[in-house]
Amino acid sequence: MKTLTTERLTLRRWKESDLDDFYHYARNPNIGPNAGWQPHTDKTQSLEILRSFIQQDDVWAIVDNRTQRAIGSLALHADKKRDNHKTRMLGYVLAEEFWGQGLMTEAVKRVLQYAFEDLELDLVSVFHYPSNRRSQRVIEKCGFKYEGTLRLSSTLFNGSVHDDVCYSITREEYTRSTA
Length: 179
Known about the structure:
Shape: globular
Order of helices and strands: EEHHHEEEHEHEEH
CATH architecture: 3-Layer(aba) Sandwich
Number of helices: 6
Strand content: 25-35%
Number of domains: 1
CATH superfamily: Gcn5-related N-acetyltransferase (GNAT)
Radius of gyration: 16 Å
Structural class: alpha+beta
Largest sheet: 8 strands, mixed
CATH topology: Aminopeptidase
Number of strands: 8
Oligomer: single chain
């Protein structure tokens, strides 16, 4: 996994020393449910998940360049909705105190550059739950195109079932938007 930088952020591999920062935002009840996971209840749970991030090597820590704190995560996972090895699915979360500052849009745009220019992917997809308007705004600002809504397609940690509002951006669309 390559370290990526922007004006305000560094996207890098997770380290076990990031545990306190990770737990800080992962325990917030306004974070996890928007991404489909239960807020963390203790640091042991966070450490287990953090170790899986390190092992999987497809999840960046989003680090604030001013404070050097990990303030979120951004991933390029295999896209389980597509049978094409040249696609990835984007997923992200950001600590609540950093919402509304354009940081996630900045990070996603940098990852799209990496995805299309370095990895030479054909397409990057992303989805959000219908109630997550903040995520929708990030997706739209980054140039993704609405594909449709998969109805009743995601079962969350609490057993509730939600629609997936699906978007994607192709390499061609990305290239046109940066020309």
